[in-house]
Amino acid sequence: MLVALVTGGTSGIGLAIAARLAEEGYRTYITSAHSPIIGERLERERKNFIYRRADVTEEQEMRQVLAEIESVEGGLDVLVNNAGYTEVIAHRDLEAATDEVWDRVMSTNLMGTWWTSRAARSALAKREGVIINISSIAGLRATGSSLPYAVSKAAVNHLTVLLAASIGDKIRVNAIAPGLVDTPWTKDWEEIRANVSAKAPLKRSAKPEDIAEVAWGIINAKYMTGQVVVVDGGLTLKHR
Ligand SMILES: NC(=O)c1ccc[n+]([C@@H]2O[C@H](COP(=O)([O-])OP(=O)(O)OC[C@H]3O[C@@H](n4cnc5c(N)ncnc54)[C@H](OP(=O)(O)O)[C@@H]3O)[C@@H](O)[C@H]2O)c1
Predict the structure, then answer these.
(1) Among 26, 51, 149, 223, which one carries the catalytic annotation?
(2) What is the mean pLDDT of residues 72-97?
(3) CA–centroid distance, residue 223 to ligand 1 (Å)
(4) Does position 239 have pLDDT exceeding 80, yes or no?
(5) What is the pLDDT of residues 1-30, one digit of tens each?
(6) What is d(CA 117, CA 232) in angstroms, rounded to the nearest whole number?
């Protein structure tokens, strides 16, 4: 059976990608750090879902999940590094971007992606697997909810390119850089949503399913690696 792991699979984009993979017949492992009750309910209620509580900022917890997958399933076909964290801080407010904020943002978004990818390498190599990193247009443009967040996503983009170049003979590595997506994370961002609807050529923010569709495309695009795919309804065409 085909097997996938989606970090941060209990909500938003991660849940939509996990749902798509489960529907397509993948045995789909999802993880989260702070929502075990939701995760266990998803495991009970949805076909092909398996939940494990694991924090991407704790390398050992991710190694444990990947060791289980490799021994029970024999390998891993798809890894989606989706778990993320931010705080909304104006970029010009340098004092508000404290070391604590930097630490949490970088250890979740960048190091979490790194630790999980490293732990998954052996299982993915057994199946000519694919890694999809969920980045952001904040990693490509002078924008985003906070300066540490934008820097973390720029680092994820470069990690994507470097991993594709270094372990690409066995594992494809790509990233998706969404614009604004309607998830619990952005539920209060009404002004930004209105701005996106006014300015983006496609005249709306994304649904999580729009991102899942691109993830599915990447999984099936077997000759594609090292790419950061912008999925923003055309927003950044107007703000280069
Ligand atoms: N929404 C957007 O507009 C947007 C745009 C561009 C990029 N993104 C990226 O898309 C990804 C998902 O965002 P979303 O909007 O879907 O947010 P969301 O609905 O808040 O979901 C975030 C998920 O990440 C999990 N998570 C957070 N910290 C974690 C940790 N330390 N270990 C494991 N899981 C953790 C959360 O679970 P727990 O907190 O319960 O553990 C939750 O399942 C993020 O990487 C984000 O940067 C989002």
Answers:
(1) 149
(2) 98
(3) 28
(4) no
(5) 999 999 999 999 999 999 999 999 999 999
(6) 25
Per-residue pLDDT band for 40 (boundaries 50, 70, 90) equals very high
The pTM for the full model equals 0.98
Cα separation, 6 vs 29, in Å, equals: 6
| CA pair distance 49, 106, nearest whole angstrom | 28
Which residue, judged by its Cα, is nearest atom 44 of ligand 1?
84
Q: Scan for tokens 């820097």, then name that residue.
A: 151
Q: What is the DSSP string of 55-112?
A: -TT-HHHHHHHHHHHHHHHS--SEEEE---------TT-GGGS-HHHHHHHIIIIIIH
Q: Is 149 a catalytic residue?
A: yes
Ligand 1 centroid from CA 78, angstroms: 18
What homologous superfamily does CATH list for 3-180+208-228? NAD(P)-binding Rossmann-like Domain (3.40.50.720)
Q: Where are the domains of the chain?
A: 3-180+208-228
- For residue range 156-210, list pLDDT tens digits in order: 999 999 999 999 999 999 999 999 999 999 999 999 999 999 999 999 999 999 9
Half-sphere exposure of 69 (CA within 13 A, CB side): 34
Q: Write down the residue that tokens 């690409």 correspond to.
A: 168
State the distance from the centre of ligand 1 to the C-alpha of 59, rounded, in angstroms.
Answer: 18
Phi, psi at residue 171, to the nearest 5°?
Answer: -135, 125
Angle CA 117–57–104, to nearest 5:
125
